[in-house]
Design brief:
Subcellular location: Nucleus
Protein name: Mediator of RNA polymerase II transcription subunit 9
Helix content: 40-55%
Radius of gyration: 32 Å
Pfam family, one: Med9
Order of helices and strands: HHHHH
Oligomer: single chain
InterPro entries: Med7/Med21-like, Med9
Number of strands: 0
GO molecular function: transcription coregulator activity
């Protein structure tokens, strides 16, 4: 029984028959691969932190015996200030009308924000070249700017040759 070669194409490239010769069409990888950055939501901690602080502040102002006046809050006084207006502003400021947060429940509620910050920190630490100094980065920027200037000079030389018809 004769053996047959597989009909499917092999995913691996076959080496060249001549040793130490690069294959035709072999990818040359001189440019660094682009870094895939994490999604922006990874670093979006301000809205949950803002909501937590609003809940904490609303609990403190409600516990003091009523809403603070504009002067106590450090805000500009509003045109019409009724007795229930401060409470309405606080409720609308909390957005979804979440219950006020007492100081004893703060660590529990803040743990999710802490976890998000820790995850964002880990993502930043895993990025390539995060340990490079500013001097190293400035040196690379200077080298890249010099390379851009040389490439622009080559392009302008090609443009001059095309204009003269050489």
């Amino acid at each position: 029984m004769a053996s047959k070669s597989p009909t499917a194409a092999s995913p691996l490239r076959k080496p060249s028959s001549a040793p130490d010769t690069p294959m035709v069409g072999e990818p040359t990888n001189t440019a660094p691969q682009p870094v895939s950055f994490p999604p922006p939501q990874t670093f979006d901690i301000i809205p949950p932190l803002h909501g937590l602080l609003l809940r904490l502040l609303s609990a403190q102002t409600a516990g003091e015996g009523g809403p603070r006046t504009a002067g106590e809050a450090g805000q500009a006084p509003s045109g019409s200030s009724g007795p229930g207006q401060g409470v309405q502003q606080q409720t609308s400021a909390t957005g979804s009308g979440l219950a006020p947060l007492s100081a004893k429940n703060l660590p529990t509620e803040a743990s999710s924000i802490k976890i998000r910050i820790q995850k964002a920190h880990a993502v930043v630490e895993s990025l390539p070249d995060i340990g490079r100094s500013v001097a190293e980065q400035e040196k690379e920027i200077e080298e890249l700017e010099n390379r851009i200037a040389r490439l622009n000079a080559v392009l302008s030389a090609f443009g001059k040759r095309a204009d003269t018809g050489a």
